[in-house]
Amino acid sequence: MKKQQDLQNSKEIKLSDIKPILSRTDLKGTIKYCNKYFQEISGYSENELIGAPHNIIRHPDMPKVIFKLMWERLKQQQDILAVVKNLSKSGDYYWVTTLFETKYHPFTKAPEGYLALRKAAPKKAVEAVIPLYQKLVEIENNEGVSASEDYLYNFLREQNKDYDTYMKDLVNYKGFIAKFFEGMSKMFT
Predict the structure, then answer these.
(1) What are the residue ranges in the chain where pLDDT is below 70?
(2) pTM summary value
(3) Maximum pairwise Cα distance, the chain
(4) Which phi and psi (to 5°) does residue 97 adopt?
(5) 47 lies in which domain range?
(6) Which helix (H) or strand (E) holds 5?
(7) Secretion signal: which residues (predicted)?
(8) What CATH number is attached to the domain comprising 91?
């Protein structure tokens, strides 16, 4: 992981509006598949990514509570949408809208892993989550993840939204965006 001082000089990687970033993991989050665009953007080779924990790209600006919520949902076999700041091998970063979903064995129907479908996050969504994520990280550093989770749920109550509605509204998850994720999901079933 890059040192914090190195990250201060990092720059944002501009993502394609049409190319998806895809990965599949096992049930523990170990990468089993990654597409070429994921390799290109992350700066890691396929050999470096396959077998690595997916948190190899976790940016320290991301609140732990978002991943806590993600794992809780996935373990209940529920999909989750999130705006995520990822870290490349070079120390640069990129913002994505990510749909995480459980994938099932075709015959036994037992969960066998997770699919992460990503596309460039809308600028307005990034602008909206930056102050929220900064506050959540600050709370986690001072009071822990439980306090951060309390803050997040209070924030959502003030918005009169649950997490899913908040995220879908933020990324305008309808029309083309919804069709994009639905289409990608069907391709990787």
Answers:
(1) 1-7, 175-189
(2) 0.88
(3) 49
(4) -95, 125
(5) 4-187
(6) helix 4-8
(7) none
(8) 3.30.450.20
